[in-house]
Each structure stands twice: as structure tokens, then as C-alpha cells.
Write a structure and sequence with these properties.
Length: 488
């Protein structure tokens, strides 16, 4: 088994090492169909968001200051763009902590509208997370305190999560990465740690963000400009023979990224809730909105230029990009080096036991509002209402959750404050931690969750992470009762 894997990885990297010379021309030549040329100068070095300074001397506590405000910033060439940003940074600054650390976020709302901060992926008390039910008013502050669960180093993120207006805030820039470092990382330090935050946007001729159309509201909004860490087509430089660890986050409203790196191998080593058990060589890696992936890229011995692509992807709902898009250039240059080999065993992920598991089903749908006559995306035939408790579960119990997608489009479904495991076709948990999965059309997608993976009861949100669907009402909640309380 291990030998097979070793071989597979070796073959993939070997192939990468003696790849045919990279194409002489730029990414445009590699793409069939329409190409949107970047409006800002392409090929600038890939920037990385600053890490929020830790204001607390205690090594076990990370204490940071975070504010949200509207800012005019240069995003395209020419006029500045009015964005909504955390601490003036696009994307937001990175929150970095170590597994087991307590994180204190002093948040200040300098917007003219209510907002909240959701720590997406973190296994924390819903009471100390932000959501549609606990808004921070303009000019108000709120302190979020939580602990990064020991044993769960991961790539998570934080974003605005107000009621009904997340699609008007998060994609304007209110999103940033959370890097929870491992106490003992199986990944060699030589691989580095580079984050890629993918966002897309639509602008008018004055470089201002345009409102959603009716089509966007129904299908999810995709922008024609794609940013990596806030830049159009930036360039990442690797040394010949270098292996680099990439943490990729899809922070877009609705766009799916089918990542591919023609000429080089992508070795996926992790997903939402941290590392896999073993590396997996992938022809491409599909990232739905809110999804994360950890990927290793090994530079060949020869200098050259490669292009990270988002391949055409049909997500149903009548929306289909029929052409590939370039995201970023990877240039192999400088002094050769020889990174250590990729470890073949990353960690052990114990499968959640299905013994005694209950079950719960959520069915996708569209309803017409009696009041307005408008159509809305829903779960279990109900539009989300923050004042209503939809489902009740018991802390410590295990459940198989079925997403019964009866529609024609893919929905990225996210459950707050836990990490769960997808079940394969034969009903066996896949040993990987996830918090967002694709519900394929005309399919029942099943995952297993254990409430009490943490010790926290409270309100767990479940929703589609296409932000237009989420805000339209395709969201529900599960109230998890404390273990000692009988369920009503
Ligand atoms: Cu990333 Cu309820 O969200
Ligand atoms: Cu959806």
C-alpha cells in the first residue's frame, strides 16, 4: 500500500521533474476561447496578507485587533475601488495561531451597517462565533474569544456573516485566512507556507463594484476578474528543485475553481480540517466556495514558467464557463535547491463511529413567497429565519446527515462549528475532516457528524455557501442541546 503510494508520488514528481519545456508564450495561448486580460499590470510578485500582530505576551494566547471599514483602494489600474475591508487589507489580514491556543479578537464595526465575524471551520462554541443572530451594530465593538482545538491544525478563514447581506459584505473584501499551525508538523519546514486566497469580482467603467443582477441572485454571482491575494495574475517564484506548500482558500461568492497546473503535478495533502492521512496526486483540485485545500508543488530542475489555471467547470443552474482561466504564474528561477521528499504518512484521522448514529435529511428546493411572489432557494421548504429553531439535536450524539439535492445545480453545503466526515458510496466515512462539501444534483450526499466533537451545545448553522443562495434563505439551524438537558 505504502509502496504503491510512494511509487505514485515518485512517478508524479519524476514526471514533473522532466516535464517538456514550458510553452514559450504566456497563458493566453494555452486557453481555448475568450480571455479577459487583466486590467492591472500582471506578473507582479504574489503578495501575502499581513499576519495580525499578537498583542498578548502569553505564548498560549493570540490577541488581535480587527476592524471592518469601507475603504477606497487601488485594485485595478486607474481609479480606486470602494471596498469593505478588515484593517484596510485585501484580502483581510491572516489570523495565525497554534493548535491549543486561545484566540481573542477585539472586533470594531466601522461600517455604516451591522455585521458579524464568523470563524469558518473552527470547532468552537457557537456562542462565541459570529452569525446572522448576533450582529455588531455600526460603531460598536465585540470581543470574540475561542480556543483552536488541540489536534486540529488547519486552514480556516473568517468572514462577514450578517443576516441576509453576507453577499454584500464578504465578497467586497471582508474575508481573511486563519492559519492554525501544528505543534508538530509532519511537513518539512523547507516547504515554506504560502497562502492563496481566491476571489472574483465585477466592476463598472469607474472601477466600482457593480450590484448583483437578478441572474446573479438566482444562480450565484461570478465576477470576470479573478484575484489571487488581491492581485490579478501575480507571479510566484520557486527555485529549481524546490517544493512549496500552498494553502488555497476559495473566498468567492459562487465561483468554483477547478485548479490545474499544466506541466507540473499537484499533490493534494489536505482539505478544510487539515492534512489527509497520505498525499494524493491530483490532475486537478476542485474548490467550491468556502473550500480549502493544501497542495504541494515541486519545481523541476529546469527554469521555466507555468500557469495555475481554473479549468472550465459546469456547476449546473444554467451557468457554465466554457473556457479556462489563468490565475497565477509560477516561475522557476534562481539558485537550484533540493527540497526534502514529501512525507508519505501525514497523520492518522480516526473515522467517526457510525454505531448508534441517528439521521437527519435536508432537502433542497425553491419556494414562491406568498407575500412577494418571488422565488427563493430553501432547505426543507423553509426560508431561513434567525428567530426560529428548525431542528434539535443532542450534544454527544452522532448523526448521518443527508443532503437530498433534488435540483439541477451543485450546492456547496457548510455546517458551522464542527468538522465532519463524508461517507463514500458504500456508506463508509472517509478519514478526512471537512466543513463544506458539494451536494451534487439529483444525488443524496451523506456525511457523519458528532455533536460533542467539542463540548459545546448551541446553534449550529447549516447552509449553502453560494452567498446569494445563503442570503436568499437556503440556510437552516440545528440547536444542539447540552447533554444533561432532555430535548423538547
Ligand atoms: Cu463561511 Cu455560515 O459560513
Ligand atoms: Cu446553493
Amino acid at each position: 500500500m505504502h509502496r504503491f503510494l510512494q511509487l505514485a508520488v515518485a512517478i508524479a514528481l519524476g514526471l514533473a521533474g522532466c516535464a517538456t519545456p514550458p510553452p514559450a508564450a504566456g497563458p493566453a495561448n494555452r486557453i481555448a476561447g475568450k480571455v479577459t486580460s487583466p486590467a492591472a499590470p500582471a506578473g507582479q510578485p504574489l503578495p501575502e496578507s499581513p499576519v495580525l500582530p499578537d498583542l498578548n505576551a502569553d505564548p498560549g494566547i493570540v490577541e488581535v485587533d480587527l476592524y471592518a471599514a469601507e475603504e477606497d483602494v487601488p485594485v485595478l489600474s486607474g481609479a480606486t475601488t470602494r471596498m469593505m475591508l478588515y484593517n484596510g487589507s485585501f484580502p483581510g489580514p491572516t489570523i495565525e495561531a497554534r493548535e491549543g491556543d486561545t484566540v481573542i479578537v477585539h472586533f470594531h464595526n466601522r461600517l455604516s451597517v451591522p455585521t458579524s465575524v464568523h470563524f469558518h471551520g473552527m470547532v468552537i462554541d457557537p456562542e462565541h462565533d459570529g452569525g446572522p443572530w448576533n450582529l455588531v451594530s455600526p460603531r460598536q465593538s465585540h470581543t470574540y474569544t475561542w480556543t483552536a482545538r488541540a489536534g486540529m491544525p488547519m486552514t480556516a478563514w473568517y468572514h462577514a456573516h450578517p443576516h441576509g447581506t453576507t453577499h454584500l459584505q464578504a465578497p467586497k473584501g471582508l474575508a481573511g485566512l486563519i492559519r492554525i499551525l501544528a505543534q508538530a508538523d509532519p511537513m518539512p519546514a523547507e516547504f515554506g507556507d504560502t497562502s492563496l486566497v481566491l476571489t472574483d469580482q465585477k466592476f463598472d467603467l469607474n472601477n466600482q463594484i457593480v450590484p448583483d443582477t437578478e441572474f446573479d441572485r438566482f444562480n450565484g454571482r461570478e465576477g470576470d476578474r479573478i484575484f489571487v491575494n488581491g492581485r490579478l495574475m501575480p507571479k510566484l517564484v520557486l527555485r529549481p528543485g524546490e517544493t512549496r506548500r500552498l494553502r488555497v482558500l476559495n473566498a468567492s461568492s459562487a465561483r468554483f475553481y477547478k485548479l490545474s497546473l499544466p506541466g507540473l503535478a499537484l499533490v493534494q495533502v489536505g482539505t478544510d480540517g487539515g492534512l489527509f492521512e497520505t498525499p494524493a496526486v491530483a490532475a486537478n483540485v476542485l474548490l467550491t466556495p468556502a473550500d480549502r485545500a493544501e497542495i504541494l508543488v515541486r519545481a523541476p530542475a529546469q527554469r521555466g514558467t507555468y500557469t495555475l489555471m481554473a479549468l472550465a467547470h459546469d456547476r449546473g443552474l444554467g451557468l457554465r464557463e466554457t473556457f479556462d482561466r489563468p490565475l497565477m504564474t509560477i516561475e522557476i528561477a534562481g539558485e537550484p535547491t533540493n527540497s526534502p521528499p514529501i512525507p508519505l504518512k501525514l497523520r492518522t484521522v480516526a473515522p467517526i463511529s457510525l454505531a448508534g448514529a441517528g439521521s437527519r435529511t435536508f432537502t433542497t428546493g425553491v419556494v414562491r413567497s406568498a407575500a412577494t411572489g418571488m422565488l427563493h432557494f430553501v432547505l426543507n421548504a423553509q426560508q431561513y429565519d434567525p428567530l426560529r429553531i428548525d431542528q434539535v439535536a443532542q450534544l454527544g450524539s452522532t448523526e448521518v446527515i443527508t443532503i437530498n439535492n433534488v435540483g439541477s445545480g451543485q450546492h456547496p453545503i457548510h455546517l458551522h462549528n464542527v468538522q465532519f466526515q463524508l461517507l463514500d458510496a458504500s456508506g463508509v466515512p472517509i478519514p478526512r475532516w471537512e466543513d463544506v462539501i458539494i451536494a451534487q444534483p439529483a444525488t443524496q450526499t451523506r456525511f457523519v457528524v458528532k455533536y460533542g466533537l467539542d463540548e459545546f451545545p448551541g446553534m449550529f448553522m447549516l447552509h449553502c455557501h453560494l452567498l446569494q443562495h445563503e442570503d436568499d434563505g437556503m440556510m437552516t439551524d440545528i440547536f444542539v442541546n447540552p447533554a444533561s438537558t432532555p430535548s423538547p
